[in-house]
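Pilot study result, target chain (188 residues):
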Amino acid sequence: MQGLHNRRETDGFTLVELVITLAVAAILVSTAVPSFVQLVSNTHATRITNDFVTTLHAARGEAVKRNVRVTVCHSANEKTCNPGGKWTDGWISFIDLNNSGTRQPATERLLQSHGKADSPFVFDLGAASLPLQDYISFSPDGMARIAAGSALSGAIQTGKLELRNANTGVGRDVAITGGSIKVKEVHS
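Predicted structure:
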């Protein structure tokens, strides 16, 4: 009988137990959130880069397959090039029949289009990458060349575009050297 009187009923948590549990949970959440934000930023950078590089590879392949110049340029309306604009406005690829680096909608076939890149995503060009400022044009031999004259003329285009999240600095470098397209992860 004495054992029954000393037994305490425990139907719930004490205030101390609840506070300790909440403190541990808060610590776990505070360490997980930055990792999650980094993961989302990295995934976003990868997606935009993959979209851009896929467009470049497809344009190069079409140029070789069709034996014509195919150009990728930035575009705000997904139909025509936007000289002086930004790559974050979006981009298009098209068969560049007149080798000008800009699309003539009435005569030049649109191959692909991509809408505006989500904010805070940016494309940065280095000073040595000015040939890539408005367009990237692939000739029938698969080389990136400045659009001039005929399909096979023009200086080789080389340069680097850095695609990154402006808030976190996570991104990718897309280096173009002639017909080669290489991607490298960067952290600014």
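One observation from the pilot: The helical segments are 2-6, 15-66. A full batch analysis is planned for the follow-on phase.
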